[in-house]
Amino acid sequence: MSKLKTVVLALAFAVTLPGYALALGNDGQNKGDVDPGSACKGLPTHSQLQSALSAARAQMNGGFNLDMWGTIVNRDGVVCAVAFTGSNRSAQWPGSRVISAQKANTANAFSLPALALSTANLYTAVQPGGSLFGLQESNPVNTKVAYRGDPSDYGQVNDPMIGGRIGGINVFGGGLALYDSKGKLLGGLGVSGDSSCADHNIAWRTRHSLKLDFVPAGVSGDTTRPDNIVYDITAAPGLQIGVSAKGWGHPACSDAATTIAAGLPVIP
Fold this sequence. Notes:
Blueprint: H1 3-23, H2 36-39, H3 46-57, E1 69-74, E2 79-84, H4 96-109, H5 143-146, E3 175-179, E4 185-192, H6 196-209, E5 233-236, E6 239-244, H7 255-262
Antiparallel strand pairs: 1-2, 1-4, 3-4, 5-6
Helix pairs in contact: 3-6, 6-7
């Protein structure tokens, strides 16, 4: 190699390296990420999430009996764990990975220490004319977090979303806030991969297995299941989706899913 080429390559490396260093933290994380070791303290690990999600998926949930994605975020919306139930990442809908993260973020972002809202509770309120119309357009997914990294790591202990703030709003079943035994709101759980009603049932059972369902209050009208999915939408002239009596209703997916939701584990 000529001396001129050596000098040119050296200069190119010198110019590129600072930009690369800015894009990555000292530990190799992407810029803006946080250390999940400290940020996710008190939340389930990858193996705990995968175990609870798999057990919930294995039950009858009123859907299509499909494999699932699950994501956990902390109170700041930082992704702490991502898992799937199938034999590999292609065994469940690829698009449901990010949807599960959206749901986790939504349930966390719109729940409070004294009031939990599941993503299923938001469906009616965000329809045209609803009290929260437009909410689903707010807080978009951070695509740099959602799609970065090597896809072969998706759903693994080192999923590239981990440590990043995912954002995103989802307004159908499958997202639940997480409360510990002291009633502290720790973050959110999102589940996706089946019908939205089955997603809710699977998320509920997953949260129950993780013992993070000490929910203080909600809008369902059932004090034993405060943030449960609400099936109270009835047909109305001129309205395609109908009217929800309580204002927090979700469309029914199947008779089985509706029946199962009514018998989900009660809060501790």
